[in-house]
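Internal ticket - ligand job 220, pyridoxal-5'-phosphate:
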Amino acid sequence: MVLKDNLQAVEERIARAAARAGRKRADVTLIAVTKVFPAPAILEAYELGLREFGENYVQEFEGKAPQVAGLAGAQYHLIGHLQSNKTRKAAALFQVIQTVDSEKLARRLSEVGTPLDVFLEVKLSEEEAKWGAAPEDLAALVEVTRGQPNLRLRGLMTMPPWSEDQEKTRPYFARLRELACRHAVECLSMGMSNDFEAAIEEGATHIRVGTALFGKRKKA
Ligand SMILES: *Cc1c(COP(=O)(O)O)cnc(C)c1O
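stdout (structure tokens):
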């Protein structure tokens, strides 16, 4: 019941932001971020029509995956950092890896042999972001990723420093859009519960929303 109301509120926020930007609702994919929440949260969201799910930890999702196997049309996105020794497991569990940030990781993922959609994670704030490729390394990473037989490069992803004020994160979103444009990459994964309106206005094609749907998380 709570999820249903939260989803409706999120949908209204998406619709208003898209309208302000002259964009169509259908051009924005809502990814429900279910990290820390148990498998029934995914099942409930699926019942309400959500099909894209984001998880941060390979190990955590491995535990839930058997309970959500067989949901037709469901797609799982890895949105947390991926260590190159977990590529095989990740490729078996997820259809989309949003956190490719090195040539080594791109090669390792492709070598697993499972076709995967990938986003390149970009680090736009030197001090605060732990993961992500530096913008100056992006050209080489794009080229290597495009050269991998089992990877399909979909877009760029970023996680700006957290702020209550959407106007503070907006410049990061604009920057990611510029980079996507420069490298002729189609999709932009940016915007979370507190700032997805600004992200949509700046061109987000994928927003990653946890708290606004499922409520506050207990610390993982
Ligand atoms: C947790 C997380 C989200 C969702 O954040 P909320 O503020 O709960 O919406 C989105 N993206 C990434 C990479 C995350 O780790």
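Auto-summary: The pocket of pyridoxal-5'-phosphate is lined by residues 33, 35, 56, 79-80, 159, 192-194, 208-212 (CB under 6 Å). The radius of gyration is 16 Å.
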